Predict the structure.
Amino acid sequence: MAVFPRRRLAAVALAATTALLVTAGCGGGDEEGGDGPVTLTVDVFGQFGYEQLYQEYMAANPDVKIVERGTGTNLDEYSPKLTQWLAAGRGAGDVVAIEEGLLVEYKANPGNFVNLLDHGAADLKGNFLEWKWNAGLTADGKQLIGLGTDVGGIAMCYRKDLFEKAGLPTERDEVSKLWPTWPDYIATGEKFVAAKTGASFLDAATNTFNTILLQTAGNSGGYSYYDTSEKLVVDSNPAVRQAYDTTMDIIDSGLSGKYGSWSEEWVSAFKQSKFATIACPAWMTGVIEANAGPAAQGKWDIAQVPGNGGNWGGSHLAVPKQSKHQAKAIELAKFLTSAKGQIGAFKAKGPLPSSPQALDDPAITGATNTYFSGAPVGSIFGTGAKSLKPVYMGPKNQAVRTEVENAVRTVELGQRSPAQGWTDAVTNAKKAAAK
Amino acid sequence: MTVQLDARPPVAPAPPPPTGRFSRLDTRLSPYLYIAPFFLLFAVFGVYPLAYTFWVSLHDWDLLGTEHPFVGAENYTRLLADVDFWHALVNTLGIFVISTVPQLLAALWLANLLNRGLRARTGWRMAILVPNVTSTAAVAIVFGVIFGREFGMINWLLDLVGMDPIGWKSNRFASWVAISAMVDWRWTGYNALILLAAMQAIPRDLYESASIDGANRTRQFWSITVPLLKPTIIFCAIIATIGGLQLFTEPRLFHSGTNPIRGGPMRESQTLTMYMFENAFAPHYNFGYGSAVAWLLFALIAIVAAVNVLLLRRLGGRSGPDARKETPR
């Protein structure tokens, strides 16, 4: 074969360019509008527990068909997709769930969403806890981005069978008494580890870290990585340092199974009963049930969380401006976030209502969860839900949180010493906040 | 490839002189119309995204923001001082080298085996392509489980022979090896088939005369097969380079859980494309910065491809039968 280097080079460059471009991404699909029933797409992550509610809604509104996307996905998969859809101007559902940590970023660009105040949402204010309602408002208070779904009151879920094996009490009230504070929780964990059950005491240090942080922050200044003037305070907020130090004690005592949260291994560890406790915001109960599966029914139970309360997570439902069926989507969002909708979701998958009416409803106060050995979830999570202290989330909360939790993870895996981990956390958090 | 360099066709009989205006237009324009589809598609899907990415990279472009102020080369200067960028670059090159080199050698060896008179030859030849038709996502997820820290099969096997488990996802070199294994499992067969096709184009009489001259199989392989395969090896190397430097799906899906886009808690196996994604999308949504990463990656691929061509030409050019022709013009 004859060789012409220059031509070859040109061909190579062309081939390189083409191949590079072939990898360009592609957008999501859309359904066509038509005369028949309107299809409303609802984008969620994790477990929202809306299936039954959709059936009811569709039965009452025959002109609407509801499709849910994203059930069971992790927030880290869901939020980039949603952001891309919003940026691209198409692809997003008609109703989308927004987690509290991302709400601030979305509120900074409110033009992507329908202002629910223009559609009669102002009358609904009394249906939500005040801070939950306010979280959906833009800084100037003129636009309401989303209606609150749930709040994340925290408890501690534990495996009764593993506790029994380790010679610890198994009744939920006795278990709650084991750990009024986090040091007590660690002491209990050390006893558990000494009993050599083949399981770890907790799933991942990062989950526990986030719980302690949100609890400590809620009980002190009401903010974590950012203060309320949106200044990054990761290295000066004592709540962050305190949560970090407590977590280091947990790691030091060898309590963590080091199953990276939300990973395949984490799910396997649920299935194989590899850890005995997990910090449990109300919505986590649905996640546990989905991960541990029917085989573990009745083996889990729920006790009080060490320390004092706290709120982790909770979402809002919003209607993107790109929706072609805004009016119908707004009606659906109102229905799903109504007291009735929130009670339905709670019964299905456990997310704790953000509506005071729902929280007072006997359906909630008297609710038990058979999967969790009949634990009175209504009173465990519901009591104190109205006095929950929210934590302020700054503009780059998600990026900063990622950096700090990764630093915790490196210490947990033995890649870094606690001191190095703290330095990494602060340096990387500052860098992430500046991006 | 043709040796024909002259752009004009060797027209023997003179064409009839163009009569009307239309037929003159026809002779002038229609060639361009015939080749237009490629250039149109290339402009829409090739040039435009490239140029647009460059345009974006010159701005402070928040993905959700409505205003995108022009910042000139600031994204690039920041990027060049960004340790995480260089870290991702080293990861990418590291994974590229430890996946591509064994992959091409293994492909060459496989192709040579398949080129012999085996029983059920077609069956074997098809079988080696099977990994390639498996979906990358499925491969990555399965390998991610196999290389799990606690429940993974590899660590279980290591445990059986009394070795300590390896943190495949949190040890930098180990994660490179695991990801390379994934890439090689998928692409070795593909390259072997391409090399095999080229091997079959080598005239048999070369081997016959070599045998008569007393050259054994190994000698024939290195003195006839490899030199004559050189253009194909270059092709395979370049395709592997492009794929290797753009590696995304395998390392991304190898990690699961929170923020897998980092490729491990300390970015152990975060490749450049992952870093681009991390910046352009979650959690930073800095489209301008991500576009700057994309352009530097493009430059890098061009450089590495050029180095590849030069290196391989030299390697093969020393002893091959067509070495004479290889001398640069």
Q: What stands out?
A: Residues 109 and 192 of chain B are 8 Å apart (CA to CA). Residues 1-5, 318-329 of chain B have pLDDT under 50 and may be disordered. Chain B touches chain A through 57 residues (CB under 8 Å).
